[in-house]
Design brief:
Elements (H helix, E strand, L loop, with lengths): L14 E4 L4 E4 L7 E4 L6 E9 L1 H12 L30 E3 L4 E6 L2 E10 L2
Antiparallel strand pairs: 1-4, 2-3, 4-7, 5-7, 6-7
Protein backbone atom coordinates (compact mmCIF):
# COMPACT_ATOMS: atom_id res chain seq x y z
CA UNK A 1 0.00 0.00 0.00
CA UNK A 2 1.58 3.32 -1.06
CA UNK A 3 2.49 5.81 1.67
CA UNK A 4 1.83 9.56 1.29
CA UNK A 5 5.13 10.87 -0.13
CA UNK A 6 5.07 14.51 0.96
CA UNK A 7 6.02 16.09 4.28
CA UNK A 8 2.98 18.38 4.05
CA UNK A 9 -0.01 16.54 5.50
CA UNK A 10 -2.39 19.30 6.62
CA UNK A 11 -4.51 21.07 3.98
CA UNK A 12 -3.52 24.76 3.92
CA UNK A 13 -6.55 26.03 1.96
CA UNK A 14 -9.13 24.10 3.93
CA UNK A 15 -11.08 20.97 3.09
CA UNK A 16 -14.62 19.70 2.75
CA UNK A 17 -16.03 16.39 3.91
CA UNK A 18 -19.17 14.69 2.60
CA UNK A 19 -20.25 11.60 4.56
CA UNK A 20 -21.35 8.67 2.42
CA UNK A 21 -25.03 7.95 1.84
CA UNK A 22 -26.09 4.33 2.29
CA UNK A 23 -29.86 4.81 2.28
CA UNK A 24 -32.22 3.28 -0.26
CA UNK A 25 -35.52 5.07 -0.80
CA UNK A 26 -38.47 3.16 -2.24
CA UNK A 27 -41.56 5.04 -3.32
CA UNK A 28 -44.87 3.65 -2.11
CA UNK A 29 -48.34 3.99 -3.62
CA UNK A 30 -49.42 6.16 -0.71
CA UNK A 31 -47.59 7.92 2.08
CA UNK A 32 -43.93 8.68 2.52
CA UNK A 33 -41.18 6.65 0.86
CA UNK A 34 -39.77 3.65 2.67
CA UNK A 35 -36.17 4.16 3.72
CA UNK A 36 -33.68 1.47 4.65
CA UNK A 37 -29.97 1.29 5.05
CA UNK A 38 -28.16 -0.61 2.29
CA UNK A 39 -24.71 -0.75 3.88
CA UNK A 40 -23.41 -0.45 7.43
CA UNK A 41 -20.41 1.61 6.33
CA UNK A 42 -19.95 3.96 3.38
CA UNK A 43 -16.91 5.98 2.32
CA UNK A 44 -16.82 9.71 2.90
CA UNK A 45 -15.45 12.01 0.21
CA UNK A 46 -12.98 14.82 0.81
CA UNK A 47 -11.79 17.79 -1.21
CA UNK A 48 -8.45 19.05 0.11
CA UNK A 49 -5.98 21.67 -1.08
CA UNK A 50 -2.27 21.87 -0.38
CA UNK A 51 0.41 24.49 -1.06
CA UNK A 52 3.43 22.84 -2.70
CA UNK A 53 6.77 23.71 -4.21
CA UNK A 54 7.54 22.74 -7.80
CA UNK A 55 9.42 19.62 -6.64
CA UNK A 56 6.55 18.58 -4.33
CA UNK A 57 3.98 19.10 -7.10
CA UNK A 58 6.06 16.95 -9.45
CA UNK A 59 6.38 14.27 -6.78
CA UNK A 60 2.60 14.29 -6.18
CA UNK A 61 1.90 13.73 -9.89
CA UNK A 62 4.46 10.91 -9.97
CA UNK A 63 2.87 9.40 -6.85
CA UNK A 64 -0.53 9.44 -8.56
CA UNK A 65 0.66 8.04 -11.90
CA UNK A 66 3.32 5.45 -11.02
CA UNK A 67 2.74 1.83 -10.10
CA UNK A 68 3.63 0.66 -6.59
CA UNK A 69 6.59 -1.34 -7.86
CA UNK A 70 8.14 1.53 -9.89
CA UNK A 71 11.36 3.21 -8.73
CA UNK A 72 9.19 6.00 -7.31
CA UNK A 73 6.22 4.10 -5.87
CA UNK A 74 2.73 5.40 -6.49
CA UNK A 75 -0.98 4.66 -6.65
CA UNK A 76 -1.07 3.33 -10.22
CA UNK A 77 -3.32 6.12 -11.49
CA UNK A 78 -5.38 6.21 -8.29
CA UNK A 79 -6.18 2.49 -8.21
CA UNK A 80 -4.28 1.81 -4.96
CA UNK A 81 -5.11 3.10 -1.49
CA UNK A 82 -2.96 5.60 0.42
CA UNK A 83 -1.77 5.52 4.01
CA UNK A 84 0.25 8.13 5.89
CA UNK A 85 -2.13 11.03 5.26
CA UNK A 86 -4.04 11.76 8.50
CA UNK A 87 -7.77 12.46 8.66
CA UNK A 88 -8.13 16.27 8.28
CA UNK A 89 -10.67 16.66 11.09
CA UNK A 90 -9.11 14.67 13.94
CA UNK A 91 -5.58 13.71 12.76
CA UNK A 92 -6.32 10.00 13.20
CA UNK A 93 -4.71 7.50 10.86
CA UNK A 94 -6.78 6.98 7.74
CA UNK A 95 -6.79 5.15 4.42
CA UNK A 96 -7.68 7.16 1.33
CA UNK A 97 -8.09 6.55 -2.38
CA UNK A 98 -8.03 9.13 -5.20
CA UNK A 99 -11.44 9.85 -6.77
CA UNK A 100 -9.88 11.95 -9.54
CA UNK A 101 -6.42 12.95 -10.72
CA UNK A 102 -4.84 15.80 -8.72
CA UNK A 103 -5.32 19.29 -10.13
CA UNK A 104 -2.14 21.38 -9.91
CA UNK A 105 -2.37 25.18 -10.27
CA UNK A 106 0.59 27.55 -10.22
CA UNK A 107 -0.14 30.53 -7.97
CA UNK A 108 3.31 32.19 -7.95
CA UNK A 109 6.89 31.38 -8.89
CA UNK A 110 7.66 27.93 -7.42
CA UNK A 111 4.34 27.94 -5.52
CA UNK A 112 1.59 25.53 -6.54
CA UNK A 113 -1.86 24.68 -5.24
CA UNK A 114 -2.79 21.01 -5.42
CA UNK A 115 -6.50 20.17 -5.26
CA UNK A 116 -7.33 16.55 -4.45
CA UNK A 117 -10.59 14.61 -4.37
CA UNK A 118 -10.18 11.68 -2.01
CA UNK A 119 -12.35 8.90 -0.67
CA UNK A 120 -11.95 7.92 2.99
CA UNK A 121 -12.24 4.15 3.20
CA UNK A 122 -13.93 2.67 6.24
Amino acid sequence: MPVWPLTVTAPQFGWTESPGDSLVRTQTDAGPAKVRRRFTSTPSTFSVQFVLTKAEATRLVQFYENAADDAIAGTNGGALTITGLPHPRDDSSATFRFLAPPVITQTAYDVFRASLRLELLP
